[in-house]
Amino acid sequence: MENMQFWLICFMLGWTIVDGSEMEQDFTWHLRKIPRLVNERTFHLTSPTFEADAKMVLKRVCGIECQKALPAPSLSELEDSLSYETVFENGTRTLTRVKVQGLVLEPTQNTTTKGTSVRRKRQVYGTDSRFSILDKRFLTNFPFNTAVKLSTGCSGILISPNHVLTAAHCVHDGKDYIKGSKKLRVGLLKMRNKGGGKKRRGSKKSRREANGGDQTEGSKENLKERARAGRRRKAGARGQRVAEGRPSFQWTRVKNTHIPKGWVTGGRGDAALDFDYALLELKRAHKKKYMELGISPTIKKLPGGMIHFSGFDHDRADQLVYRFCSVSEESNDLLYQYCDAESGSTGSGVYLRLKEPDKKSWKRKIIAVYSGHQWVDVHGVQKDYNVAVRITPLKFAQICLWIHGPEANCTYG
C-alpha cells in the first residue's frame, strides 16, 4: 500500500521514473534582470487595533473592460503600491516609502478580476482532486516540508531560514489587521516521536514500599488488580503510540510582518488583489529546507500548463493537502485556475519544477501565492476561478528587500 502511495504521488508531482531517473520535457528557468527597490524614508504610524475579521472583502476590483480603458501605471504609482507597512511584535507600525531603479515597464494583459464582497465557502470544482499527504517520507522532506500553517488559519511557505511568504489577507483585511495577528504564530510541520513516554524506574524495594510493604493476602489481591490496570495502561499506550506517529506543529512567534501598500490602500483604487501577499519574519530561525522565489513565467512556459501547491485545508483536520492543475487565464499579476482548494489553503506557495540554466538538475521555485476564490469578468461574462498572485520582477525585488534589507542584491531571478 505504501509503495502504491509513493508511485501515485510521484505521478501527481509530474515525475516519470525510469530506472531511477526522472524524464520530463525540457522546460528551463529563464533568468530575468530584476529592478532594484531602495528604501527612501520610513514613517511611524499609529498602532493598529487588530479588530478586523479574518476574511477578505474586495468591493471594487476592475474588470476586463475597465482594465482596457486604464492607462499603464506610472512609475510613481508603482512606487506608491510597492511602499510597505511593517508591523512589529510589540504592536508598533511603520510605513516605508521606496524608489524603483532599473524598471522596464511591460504591456498590461487584459484579464483581471471584478469584485464580489464574499468568497464562496466551497472552492472545489466537480470531482475533488486534492491529495492528503500522510506518508512521513513525503511530509518531512522537500518540497512538502516547506508548507506551514498560520495561527490565523491560513497557510504559508518557507522562503528562507527566517521568513514565510503568505497572502496579505491572512493578516490584514485591507483596512485593519485581523484579530489574532498581533500575536501571530507559524506552525512548522513535524512528526511526533514514537513511544509511550518515559518509563518510571525504581528498585524492587521501593515498588514494594509503594505497594504497601509486605505482600499479605490483601496486598497480593491489590497487586493483581494493579497488574490488570498495568495491562490496560499498556494497551492504551499502544494506541497513544499510534497517535504519536501523526504530524503535529511546532509553533514559532512572528517577529514582524511586511505588507505592500498596494494591498492596504488598493493602490490605484482597484488593484488590491494584485498585492495580496505578505512576508513574515520568524522570531526563531528554522533548520528546514526552504523554497526559493522565481519569476512567474507565462502560461505557455509552464510544463503542461500546470501549477502545484500544498496547504492545510480546513476540511482535512491538519492534514497537508497537495493539488495540481492547469492555469486557465492570466494577467500581469494574477493566475486564474481551477485547483481544488478549501479555506485554510490560502497563502500557500504556488510552485513549478523547471530545469536550471546550463545544468542537468531541476529546481522548484515559488512563482505565486494562492489567494482564494474570486469572480472574474471575462468579456462581460462572470466566471469564477481560484486565483493566485504572481511573483513579478517588481514583487521579487520587493520581497528580496524585505528579506535581505537595504543591502539586498537580487540582480536576477
TrEMBL record:
Listed SUPFAM superfamilies: Trypsin-like serine proteases
Location of the region described as Disordered in the Swiss-Prot/TrEMBL record: 191-246
Domain of life the protein comes from: Eukaryota
Protein's organism: Rhinolophus ferrumequinum (Greater horseshoe bat)
GO process terms (BP): proteolysis
Family, similarity comment: Belongs to the peptidase S1 family.
Protein name: Inactive serine protease 35
Composition-biased stretches (Basic and acidic residues): 217-228
GO molecular function, one term: serine-type endopeptidase activity
